[in-house]
Structures are given as C-alpha cells and as structure tokens.
Design brief:
Layout (H helix, E strand, L loop, with lengths): L1 H23 L2 E6 L12 H24 L6 E6 L11
Parallel strand pairs: 1-2
Length: 91
C-alpha cells in the first residue's frame, strides 16, 4: 500500500501532467517527501524507502525537465520534506 501511494502515486501524477507541462511551458510539480526520506527510524523502513524514492524521482524529473525545456522559465519540479507534525486533540 505504501509503495502504491507514495511511489506509484507520484509517478502517475507526473505522467498525467507532463504533456500539458510541456505544451504550456509554465508549470510546477510539487512532490511531498518526508524527513524520513533522509533519516531512517525504527519500524519505518518501507515508509522511509518510499519517501527516499520520492526524492530521487523529483530530482531525476527536475533534471529531465531542465534538459527538455531549456531556457523556458516557469517549468519546474520542487519537493517538500516535512518532519513530524505534532497533533493535538482538544477534549
């Protein structure tokens, strides 16, 4: 399930928007990774691996877009990697 959502979801999303990105020459893809893509925590091996994959996919796609759409400002790939978020429940 994690691989389907975290890795395949990113790949399917890029595949879906790529033709329009190229044609309109002005688009941004923002992928969500995690600090877990950099650091591995106990009992999170698969999650960390999928978030590291998002980092690699994002960087590879950015390089490919840069080569394909040379000197065309406005097309890009970004990635954010949030850390743990404290969730508070009010009773």
């Amino acid at each position: 399930m994690l691989i389907d959502v975290n890795v395949k979801g990113v790949l399917y999303g890029i595949t879906a928007v790529l033709p329009q990105m190229i044609s309109q020459k002005s688009s941004q893809v923002i992928n969500v990774s995690s600090v877990a893509g950099h650091l591995i925590f106990p009992a999170s091996t698969v999650y960390s691996a999928t978030k590291h994959a998002v980092r690699v996919i994002s960087e590879g796609f950015r390089q490919e877009m840069t080569a394909h759409i040379q000197n065309r400002a406005g097309c890009g790939v970004a990635m954010c990697g949030p850390s743990c978020i404290r969730y508070m429940v009010r009773e």
